[in-house]
Every structure is written in structure tokens, then in C-alpha cells.
């Protein structure tokens, strides 16, 4: 696959116009909003009480639905590929909970002066990815807006006894990561036409197109204790959420964290994202970096991801079998650290 295949329309020229709201800002917004919490609604098994990846609602004994949504401006120029990436990203939250995708609805915003044939291609890309997931797109909602945006509202199903959450990690567990990181830096390098960006760009697109379905199924089957997907809050941000929710200390070995080609090199050359800066500023003392850490590596650890990997906490006895199973299914899975008792937080070594 050539990089030219993704460069047809110039859609991604405004990809940086919108960014995920920061952790601290969002917490303040939601602090006094009623109606999100499981305590008053017994069938709501997972709500905003624990800030998990998706909501879970029990509809019958032994049957629950998983509900999530996500949308964003173009991250690549090719409309079909953009649609497929946005769909994979939206469905990832269902997989982070251990569920299976069943039905999705399109969410789209479209400029009145932009060719609607491009929107058709975006919808085709999204539909193809949902079909790959074993689901179906059953409708949606589209509005006019100065900036194109696309994503999905996704409904999945799950056994209430097998819900994967951020809160189950235990001391002694091993941390596994199912994809390489660096998509934010590499997309920015491509937008800036940095010399030699093509290899990393293609690798990033391929990674973003990969569903987390197989890795999720394997994690559930091997009895993983906790799981989340790595998206806009970066590896450090989402690891911190898991550590806080579980009341444990995540120890991440920086040298083991898998990187997409050239991501750290571009960070060293000054490529940066606004989301990465916000992540680092808002995580405060909950993430402890070693003295003298390479600044480019630190930038990568806080890099916001699109359709990123799953971060899995699993018992030491099961870790290698799970890692090998995922690697056989998807081509990669890496042991990046372990979990210790102690004050909740993340320590990078």
C-alpha cells in the first residue's frame, strides 16, 4: 500500500482544529451533572461513577448492552480510510469492556460547499469496518457544519459476569500493550510534510485500521483482570486512570513500550501535538518519569492516539499465553511492565 493511496482530497487539512477535552477539564464539567450514575439505576451496571470506556446496561438476566460513541475531524485525506479509522476508533470502547459490536449509527457533520460524494466514501469506509466487526450500521444523523466530522454511536452486547473494567488490576499483574504507539506524532509529521514521514504514516494508518476485537476476545478468554483502550489521553493518561481506579501502582518500562516507525525521531525533531501537551500538563504528579528520561521518549508516552491499543492487566501465570495468543492473531503484543502495591499512580522506569 502506498502513501499516495491516502492522499486524495486534502480532508485532513483541518484535522487539528478539534481535540479531545482534557482530563481535568472534563472532570470539572461532569462533576455536578445528574443522571450518569449507577447507584440510582440498578440496571446501569457501568456508568460515569468509575469513568470507564463505555456504559453497560442490563436488559435481561445474563444479557447487557454496551453503549458508546465517538467522532472527530479527518485524520487522513482519503475519505474511505478516514471513515474506516473513525469507525474502528468508536468501536474500540466496546472491545475495551470485553463486548461484541452489534449495531451502530453514523454521526456526521458536513460543510455545505464540500462534495457530498466524499461523504458517501466516508460512510462506505465506516460501514466496511463495522461489517468486519460483525455488526451493522442501521442509520444515523448528519448536519451541516463548517468542519467535517464523522464517527459512530455503537451498541454491543456483553455477559454481565464478564465485563472488563479499569478497576480490576491487582498487584503482581503484568501489563500488556496490543499495538505500537505514536499515531498522533506521525499524523502531525505528515501534515507538516516532514522529510521521510511516509513509512511511519503508512504504518500508523495500518495500525489505526486494525480492530481490537481479537485482542479483546483473547483477554476475556484468558481471564484478564482489567483493560482499557489507549486513545486521546495517551498511554500515560489511560494507564493512570486504570491505576487510580484499581488503587495500585503501574510500573511501565519505557524501553519495552512499542513504537511506530519514526515516531520518537519526529518527536526529537520538534513535532508535537496540542493534545500531548495537555496530557502532560494535566497528569501532574500521578505520573512519575525517571530523571534524565529522553525528552522525545517522554513526548511519545503522552502522545494522543487514535484507534490505539488495548492496555491489559493479567496475572503473571497467564500473561505469556495471552501475549502469544494476541500476537498470533494480530501480529503484535508486548509486555511493558507490571503492577505493584502502593500509592495509586504510574511510575516509568
Instruction: Tell me about the largest β-sheet.
Output: 7 strands, mixed
Beta-strand percentage range: 15-25%
Q: Classify the fold: give the CATH topology of the largest domain.
A: Phosphoribosyl-aminoimidazole Synthetase, Chain A, domain 2
Q: Using the alpha-carbon principal axes, give the shape.
A: globular
- Read across the widest sheet, the strand sequence of neighbours is 8-11-7-12-9-13-10
What is the number of domains? 2
Order of helices and strands: HEEEHEHEEEHHHEHEHHEHEHEE
- Unreliable segments (pLDDT under 50, ≥5 consecutive)? 1-8, 13-18
The DSSP helix count reads 11
Which structural category fits the helices and strands?
Answer: alpha+beta
Rg over CA atoms: 19 Å
What is the CATH homologous superfamily assignment of the largest domain? PurM-like C-terminal domain
Provide the CATH top-level class of the largest domain.
Answer: Alpha Beta
Distance between the termini: 37 Å
Amino acid at each position: 500500500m502506498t502513501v499516495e493511496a491516502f492522499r486524495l482530497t486534502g480532508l485532513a487539512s483541518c484535522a487539528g482544529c478539534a481535540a479531545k477535552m482534557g482530563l481535568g477539564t472534563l472532570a470539572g464539567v461532569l462533576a455536578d451533572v445528574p443522571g450518569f450514575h449507577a447507584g440510582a439505576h440498578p440496571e446501569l451496571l457501568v456508568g460515569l461513577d468509575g469513568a470507564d470506556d463505555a456504559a453497560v446496561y442490563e436488559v435481561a438476566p445474563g444479557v447487557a448492552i454496551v453503549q458508546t460513541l465517538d467522532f472527530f475531524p479527518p485524520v487522513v485525506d482519503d475519505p474511505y480510510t478516514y471513515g474506516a479509522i473513525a469507525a474502528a476508533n468508536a468501536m474500540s470502547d466496546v472491545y475495551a469492556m470485553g463486548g461484541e459490536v452489534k449495531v451502530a449509527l453514523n454521526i456526521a457533520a458536513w460543510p455545505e460547499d464540500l462534495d457530498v460524494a466524499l461523504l458517501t466514501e466516508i460512510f462506505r469506509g465506516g460501514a466496511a469496518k463495522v461489517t468486519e466487526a460483525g455488526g451493522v450500521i442501521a442509520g444515523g444523523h448528519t448536519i451541516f457544519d463548517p468542519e467535517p466530522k464523522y464517527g459512530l454511536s455503537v451498541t454491543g452486547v456483553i455477559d454481565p459476569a464478564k465485563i472488563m473494567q479499569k478497576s480490576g488490576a491487582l498487584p503482581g499483574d503484568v501489563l500488556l500493550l496490543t499495538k505500537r504507539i505514536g499515531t498522533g506524532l506521525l499524523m502531525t509529521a505528515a501534515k507538516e510534510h516532514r522529510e521521510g514521514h511516509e513509512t511511519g504514516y503508512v504504518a500508523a494508518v495500518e495500525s489505526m485500521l486494525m480492530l481490537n476485537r481479537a485482542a479483546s476476545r483473547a483477554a476475556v478468554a484468558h481471564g484478564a483482570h482489567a483493560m482499557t483502550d489507549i486513545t486521546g489521553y495517551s498511554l500515560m493518561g489511560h494507564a493512570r486512570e486504570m491505576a487510580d481506579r484499581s488503587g495500585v501502582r503501574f510500573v511501565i518500562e519505557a524501553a519495552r513500550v512499542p513504537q511506530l516507525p519514526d515516531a520518537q525521531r519526529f518527536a526529537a525533531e520538534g513535532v508535537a501535538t496540542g493534545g500531548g501537551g495537555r496530557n502532560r500538563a494535566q497528569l501532574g504528579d500521578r505520573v512519575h518519569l525517571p530523571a534524565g528520561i529522553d525528552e522525545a521518549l517522554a513526548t511519545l508516552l503522552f502522545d494522543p492516539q487514535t484507534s490505539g491499543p488495548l492496555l491489559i492487566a493479567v496475572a503473571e501465570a497467564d500473561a505469556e499465553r495471552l501475549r502469544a495468543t494476541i500476537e498470533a492473531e494480530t501480529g503484535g503484543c508486548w509486555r511493558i511492565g507490571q503492577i505493584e502495591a502502593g500509592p495509586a499512580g504510574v511510575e516509568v522506569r
